[in-house]
Specification:
The chain is an alpha/beta fold and 607 residues long. It is 37% helix and 19% strand. The termini are far apart.
């Protein structure tokens, strides 16, 4: 007869999570870096005691906002290249639904996140309970059903023994390279505290290793044949390169075969910015070099990218009518997009197999040389965009000038974190990433409010790196509470707040991109000036406001020397962005801009 252990469901769940580990650089480390918890009546009496009991093996962290703590968990997983992750538990009601936005962020970006929201009573004896959202048509529904469309796996645990089947499935999804994404286990509050005799071997330690499925031989032959025919090949590197730890394989492949590489937002840093084959960012926020190559390319090898509209210029960037698109992706769902020849498999393994199949083949030197010339020209353009203005200039600095100063201060150990608005576009074009961890921008879901919370999660995953968070005033006002969490947890952040008095990015899209009147994006002149430095200080950070780029550079030195979290505020120009580079983006318009829009739309590829 099997040995059993009598535990509450919550105790069993926590004990199971604590038993999971992952192999990193030959060492076995805990798979879960910890659990973020904000307690309420839906989880304090169940999950609370269970987490306290296992607090040494599975540490618990308290945040100030449920959405923010889930963002921090996402950033932890992304910085860890999906090899480690975190869980988040909340009460029933608004605590739970606050995490739905973060679940969407994780879903879009293919990142592991375990969500453990409290739920209603499975027995229904006290219904309707506090914070219950009653469905007039479905007695089984609760507010947690909002998680279903933004979860890769969803389950509601209505019996304590159900975790015996559900938890292995949850871990399968969280660690699967193709299906990776958020998992939601809704935990009715009465079931959390219900006891059951669990098999002891359910809690045996288990080490998870990165799986590397190889490409199908016939698909590999087709991809190799198409590549050999190409005269103007281009690689598009996505986030899957990083999650596969394929940076060296990509560099070796590109160098050996003379194929230039363009990077998506998620893939930026796959090659060091100054690598001979790195043509820079691609797409709507791309460099002039990468986009010029993309327009001419007769073969595009898309590695580990979902090919969103920003990367493809809303399907209008790849203009060569004879283009062959090869999708090397561990997820078949992404590999077949845009009519691609699908090469389903791990990015590192797929690149190595394709490299062997192309033994002796190189792209024409004329094409490789052209890529180098275009990239060299773009480097000079970028130098001009990010250089500090001349002393005595009264003009407000641009986002590009601010990021130039931050980039110089970051050095080789800096980790840049940002999300949403105009900054990611400037950063994608202009930030010079030294390695795969140096650049962390959430742009799959473009979620305002991710920045500071994400910075906290990145610092928890990479404590030896100096984390620089760049955030606009709009995003700062949406979510700034995790400055206090960073201070409380002694996780230092350097937060640079760019104040353009409103939503400058959408203002430019409205007035310049769509030809519309100024409306509802910038704060009116009568609105009160916000003292962001004083606000950051009230949350426990050291903070100051600077007048110009020279002042910013000095403040960044003080921030680096400081022991704790440091915020720097600078006013910026909401009107000016980097005009060079970029590609068309499909934003439907009317009126005077309609003719130009229709002309651009005619270039879209339907497959």
């Amino acid at each position: 007869m099997k040995k059993t252990i009598r535990l509450t469901m919550a105790e069993a769940l926590v004990r199971y999570l604590a038993a999971q580990s992952t192999a990193i650089d030959g060492r076995s480390v805990p798979l879960f870096g910890g659990v973020f918890a904000i307690f309420g009546h839906g989880n304090v009496a169940g999950m609370g005691p269970a987490l306290y009991q296992h607090r040494r093996a599975l540490p618990t962290f308290r945040a100030h906002n449920e959405q923010a703590m889930a963002h921090a968990a996402i950033a932890f997983a992304k910085t860890s290249a999906r090899r480690r992750m975190m869980a988040c538990t909340t009460s029933v009601g608004p605590g739970a639904t606050n995490m739905v936005t973060a679940a969407a962020v994780a879903h879009v970006n293919r990142l592991p996140l375990l969500l453990l929201p409290g739920d209603l009573f499975a027995s229904r004896r006290p219904d309707p309970v506090l914070q219950q959202v009653e469905s007039f048509a479905d007695a089984t529904a609760s507010a947690n059903d909002c998680f279903r469309p933004v979860s890769r796996w969803f389950d509601r645990i209505t019996r304590p023994e159900q975790i015996l089947a559900s938890l292995p499935q949850a871990l399968r999804i969280l660690t699967d390279p193709a299906e990776c994404g958020p998992v939601t286990l809704a935990l009715p509050q009465d079931v959390q505290a219900e006891s059951y005799d669990y098999p002891a071997d359910f809690f045996a330690p288990r080490e998870h290793r990165l799986r590397r499925p190889g490409p199908d031989p016939s698909a590999l032959d087709d991809a190799a044949a198409a590549t050999r025919r190409a005269r103007r090949p281009l690689i598009v590197a996505g986030g899957g390169v990083k999650y596969s730890l394929a940076e060296k394989a990509l560099a070796d492949f590109a160098t050996a075969h003379g194929v230039p590489v363009a990077e998506t937002q998620a893939g930026k840093g796959s090659l060091a910015w100054d690598h001979a084959m790195n043509a820079g960012a691609i797409g709507v926020t791309g460099t002039a070099a990468a986009n010029a190559l993309a327009r001419e390319a007769d073969l595009v090898l898309a590695v580990g990218t979902r090919l969103g509209d920003f990367a493809t210029g809303s399907r209008a960037l790849f203009a060569n009518p004879k283009l062959t698109l090869v999708g090397l992706n561990v997820a078949g769902f992404d590999a077949v997009k845009h009519g691609a020849l699908a090469l389903v498999g791990d990015a590192r393994r797929g690149l190595k197999h394709l490299d062997m199949a192309l033994d002796g083949w190189r792209a024409p030197e004329a094409w490789t040389g052209k890529a180098r010339r275009l990239t060299a020209a773009w480097t000079k353009t970028a130098d001009r965009a990010v250089q500090a203005p001349r002393r005595g200039s009264n003009a407000l600095p641009t986002d590009a000038q601010v990021l130039g100063a931050v980039n110089r201060a970051a050095g080789r150990d800096g980790l840049l974190l940002c999300a949403a608005g105009g900054l990611p576009g400037e950063l994608h074009k202009l930030w010079r990433a030294e390695d795969a961890t140096a650049y962390h921008v959430e742009y799959g879901y473009s979620c305002m409010g991710y920045e500071i919370a994400g910075g906290l999660g990145a610092k928890m995953a990479a404590p030896d790196r100096e984390v620089f968070v760049m955030v606009g005033d709009g995003s700062y006002l949406m979510m700034n509470s995790e400055i206090a969490t960073a201070v409380a947890l002694d996780r230092k952040l350097i937060v640079v707040i760019l104040d353009n008095r409103g939503f400058g990015c959408i203002h430019r899209l409205q007035t310049l991109g769509c030809g519309l009147d100024r409306f509802n994006n910038l704060l009116p002149d009568a609105a009160p000036a916000i003292d962001f430095a004083a606000h950051a200080r009230s949350l426990g950070a050291q903070a100051e406001k600077v007048a110009d780029i020279a002042g910013l550079e000095q403040a960044l030195k003080r921030a680096r020397a400081a022991r704790g979290t440091y915020a720097i505020v600078i006013d910026t120009d909401p009107q000016r962005g980097t005009a060079e580079g970029g590609a068309w983006w499909d934003v439907p318009v009317s009126g005077a801009a309609k003719a130009a829009y229709d002309k651009a739309r005619a270039r879209q590829r339907l497959a």
